[in-house]
Amino acid sequence: MISNKTLSKLRKVLDPGRIKTDAISRSAHSFDGYVVEGVPDAVVFPTKTEEVSKIMEIASMDRVPVTARGAGTNLSGGSIPLKGGLVLCLTQMNKIVEIAPADRYAIVEPGVVNADLQQALSPLNFFFPPDPSSYSVSTIGGNIAEDAGGPRCLKYGVTHDYILGLEVVLSSGKIIRLGSRNVKDVTGYRPAGLFCGSEGTLGIVTEATLKIVPMPKARRTAMICYADLDDTAKTVVSVIGVGIIPAAMELMDNTVINLIEDAMQIGLPRDVEGILLVDVDGAEESVDKELAQIVEFARANNAKEIKVANTSAESDALWKGRRSVYGVLNRLSPTTIVEDATVPVSKIPAMIRGCRGIAHKHSITLSILGHAGDGNLHPCINTDTRDKSEAHRVEEAIKEIFQLAIDLGGCLSGEHGIGLAKSPFLPMGMDTDSREFLSIIKKAIDPCNILNPGKFA
Predict the structure, then answer these.
(1) N-to-C CA span, the chain
(2) Distances from the Cα of 387 to the Cαs of 383, 417, 425, in angstroms?
(3) Within 13 Å of residue 366, how many CA atoms lie on the same side as its CB?
(4) Per mean pLDDT, which range of 84-88, 323-327, 337-341 is the poorest?
(5) What is the dihedral of CA 163, 341, 411, 452, to 10 degrees?
(6) What would the mean pLDDT of 62-91 be, rounded to a whole number?
(7) Taking the mean position of all CA atoms in its chain, how far away is CA 237?
(8) Residue 125: exposed, middle, or buried by beta-carbon count in 10 A (0-12, 13-18, 19+)?
(9) Residue 55 phi/psi, 5° resolution?
(10) Ranges 131-135, 164-168, 359-363: which has the least confidence
(11) pLDDT, tens digit, for every residue of 187-215?
């Protein structure tokens, strides 16, 4: 429990209305998209870096655990205050400080919602490429903490590829500034990248300087349907093998397709084993040429049906099902577990077949979607964690899914992070010396272990 002495110190830093100790506020900040909960002793809402610094000084002095949090949309338990203490909620630090199109950067506070940044950039014909499925509500601070990706990461990369500089408050309360506003900067180490993906275990990001990108002149979408999952992977390999990098290549398996069609009736073919949604963007001439080549490869690899969108509205219609899939899945059961593993592209069919075999073995409901272009798959399990027998079977299945990914030359996470969900499985994908190195970094930067304790580091 946080002592009254600590709360008294915090009240000298923040207005009383920005310190919440009531049961409802504490409960509302006790969970994210994962199945485990951890109730904090208090929730604080700073509005500027100096307040974050003073909060961390107090927490460090009184040895109070601090878990940073944005919108809480992450799916691996990264923002769960496992040890209680303080939740430091950054949603009120939500200013877009500066946008400089000529110099290709934007400076934002951590509570800025990804979609709000995109909306601000759009009239300037720029965009911020990372686009997680939760982009309409997830914050930039959370995107940085989890090193978020999204459908566009095939062509454009993930969040760490767009970090130019960070302002970070350390566990001691010290404020450090890393990087700069320059697209090219190799001054010493690049520690800003260390904080991206660290899930709040090393420091609190209070401002980010992000690289922004000119909007492509044209975008085209194709929906390609297959009777055999192997042919989806062959198409992806063929396309990328000739140097075409689409903006997105998304995969939905037959189970996902039918779930979407059951809920939305948007005309998806129910009898196919897999659908590839492909986005191509760039100059008008190159987009048309590349899409024509992709269609040729798809036909050569036994595509059963191909639909090409000719307008933005038609593109949006093709993407409607994919964008809605998590909502559809959440209707099916009290709990939806969205897992995350990456395998080499050529191993996607083997991974999907293996996951289906694991689901059958343990009598669980499983569907699969993901980013086919880079091998990042999301096995989704619908379950009820109140059923202890089923919960045990799900745990065993998840363990086997991650072991399968490792056996196929893959890794534990492509974009959701480690958090609580994958901490037990780290030895599968990281040897003892490598895990010890993570611990050395953690101890050096957060010697009292007050930043998001109980997680992977």
Answers:
(1) 23
(2) 8, 27, 23
(3) 25
(4) 323-327
(5) 60
(6) 97
(7) 24
(8) exposed
(9) -60, -45
(10) 131-135
(11) 988 888 899 999 999 999 999 999 999 99
> Which tens digits make up the pLDDT trace of 415-441?
999 999 999 999 999 999 999 999 999
Give the Cα separation of 346 and 230 in Å (integer).
Answer: 8
- What is the rounded CA–CA span in Å between residue 61 and residue 212? 39
| Domains, the chain, ordered by start | 4-89 (3.30.43.10), 96-214 (3.30.465.10), 216-328 (3.30.70.2190)
Contacts of 420 by beta carbon, 8 Å cutoff, 6+ apart: 34, 36, 76, 77, 78, 80, 82, 454, 455
Q: What is the pLDDT of residue 190?
A: 86
- Sign (positive or negative) of CA dihedral 160, 73, 352, 393: positive
Q: What mean pLDDT comes out for the span 229-249? A: 94
- What are the angstrom distances between the C-alpha of 385 and each of 35, 339, 358, 423? 8, 15, 18, 19
User: Does residue 285 sit in helix, strand or coil?
Assistant: helix
Structure tokens at 364: 């669980």
How would residue 457 be classed by pLDDT, with cut points 50, 70 and 90?
Answer: low
Give me the pLDDT at residue 323, please: 87
CA distance 59 to 123: 42
Which residues touch 153 (CB under 8 Å, ≥6 apart)? 129, 130, 371, 374, 415
| Closest by CA position to 20, among listed 92, 76, 73 | 92
Q: What pTM did the predictor assign?
A: 0.95
CA angle 176, 179, 183 (to 5 degrees): 160
For residue 288, what are the contacts with CB-CB under 8 A and spacing of at least 6? 218, 220
8-state DSSP, 159:
G
